[in-house]
């Protein structure tokens, strides 16, 4: 199960070069349930996500909650599936920033058609953990409940322009 919150970020924190970084490209094969393929540096992953049966937990956690399964892919399988993707490929650099003993920030700096968008995600162990979370001051608006900021929806955009 995945429990997360998402925030817009207006200004990048200093010292990003000292954190672990992943170059990510991801594409979607299906929207509901979500079936995604991802290249993360030299790793290839197939992900299945479904919110079916998660409605109560979503309300309790005030977060995005879904069942999630990740499976490894070979580069050949990834490239084969990539030919079948819907909409646009999402490209981003993800920085892994330690926050405290339980949490880390996944800071996504988008590229390509989504250039200019920066989001921070934090994953949680439980709905209670998510509900109690206090965002760092450098985080912007909490866009967790706004489906326009799901990567699946972002893949449909021809350019980043969600602020209007």
Please explain how this structure is put together.
By secondary structure, this protein is of the alpha+beta class. It has a single domain (2-154), classed as Hypothetical Protein Pfu-838710-001, CATH 2.40.320.10. It contains four helices and eight strands; from the N terminus they run ββββαβαβββαα. It has helices at 55-61, 75-82, 127-132, 151-154; strands spanning 2-8, 20-30, 34-40, 43-50, 64-73, 86-98, 104-110, 118-123. Strands 1-5-4-3-2-6-7-8 form an eight-stranded antiparallel beta barrel. The chain starts with a strand and ends in a 10-residue tail after the last helix. The mean pLDDT is 94.
Structural descriptors:
164 residues, alpha+beta, Hypothetical Protein Pfu-838710-001, 8 strands
Largest sheet: number of strands, sense, barrel closure: 8 strands, antiparallel, barrel
Multimeric state of these chains? single chain
Low-confidence stretches: none
CATH superfamily: Hypothetical Protein Pfu-838710-001
Overall helicity: 10-25%
Please state how the strands of the largest beta sheet are arranged side by side. Answer: 1-5-4-3-2-6-7-8
**CATH architecture assignment:** Beta Barrel
Dominant shape: globular
Name of the CATH first level: Mainly Beta
User: What would you call the structural class?
Assistant: alpha+beta
What number is the mean pLDDT?
94
The total beta strand count reads 8
User: How many discrete structural domains?
Assistant: 1
End-to-end separation: 33 Å
Order of helices and strands: EEEEHEHEEEHH
Gyration radius from CA atoms, angstroms: 16 Å
> Per DSSP, what share of the residues sits in E-state strands of 2 or more residues?
35-45%
CATH topology: Hypothetical Protein Pfu-838710-001
Number of helices: 4
């Amino acid at each position: 199960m995945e429990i997360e919150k998402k925030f817009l970020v207006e200004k990048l924190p200093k010292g990003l070069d000292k954190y672990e970084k992943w170059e990510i490209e991801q594409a979607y094969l299906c929207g509901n349930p979500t079936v995604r393929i991802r290249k993360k540096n030299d790793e290839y992953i197939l992900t299945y996500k479904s919110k079916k049966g998660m409605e109560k937990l979503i309300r309790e956690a005030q977060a995005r909650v879904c069942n999630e399964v990740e499976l490894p892919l070979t580069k050949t399988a990834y490239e084969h599936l990539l030919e079948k993707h819907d909409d646009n490929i999402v490209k981003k650099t993800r920085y892994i920033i330690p926050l405290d003993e339980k949490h880390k920030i996944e800071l996504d700096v988008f590229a390509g058609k989504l250039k200019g968008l920066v989001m921070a995600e934090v994953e949680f162990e439980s709905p209670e953990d998510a509900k109690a979370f206090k965002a760092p001051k450098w985080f912007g608006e909490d866009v967790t409940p706004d489906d326009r900021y799901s990567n699946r929806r972002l893949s449909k955009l021809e350019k980043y322009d969600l602020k209007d």
